[in-house]
Fold:
Amino acid sequence: MQQKIKRFYKQAAAAPAEGGFTVELDGRAVRTPAKAPLVVPSRGLAEAVAAEWQGQGEEVDPRAMALNNLVCTAIDIVVPHRPAIVEEVADYGAHDLLCYWTDETGELMRRQQQLWQPLLDWAGEDLRAPLQKTCGITPQSQAPDSLAALKLAVEEHSDLELTGLAAAVKAAGSLVIGLALSKGRIDAAEAVALSQLDELYQAELWGEDAEAVARRATLGRDLQHAEQFLKLSR
Structure:
């Protein structure tokens, strides 16, 4: 776990660098945890990361700088291990959350039909990846052609975009939701509602505890940061 450190700089700002833009702390360029130069192609992304550094108080909390962490993940992990990351993200398509429906007719199934089915239709039509649904938790195999099409959709992302997509997919537990967020079909709030459809329905029926509320708030922040990062990476 990253620890807080005493603030050692006064001013953080974006600056031009070889290959794009970097973040400077009192004129010194930031490096990643692996000591690589922190350089991104977008000035907007560099400015957003600089704003995170500038917004720190007397102590610097790396956990509170989501965009900085995503940039470092892209540089230190995604770039050198891109094929493995693509496989890891694409594998979510083999057991996508949106394919596992309730086995009872009623309000929950109605909501799944209303909210999940349009995304499954979109995946089939736009991504050329029709997916089979099942009821309950019994594993549902998917057609190889559909899985190949989903992998191609993942591979089309740049290294930075792949980092944001991976964050969204892992948070939502769904490749289809992550791709829909990446392509602007849904926003972060909709991604939360889609990924938490069953939990939200059960909470309406039985209530929920503070832990569940806090967990969903964290999920919301993670997806908001992923959405922002995807937009700034383009």
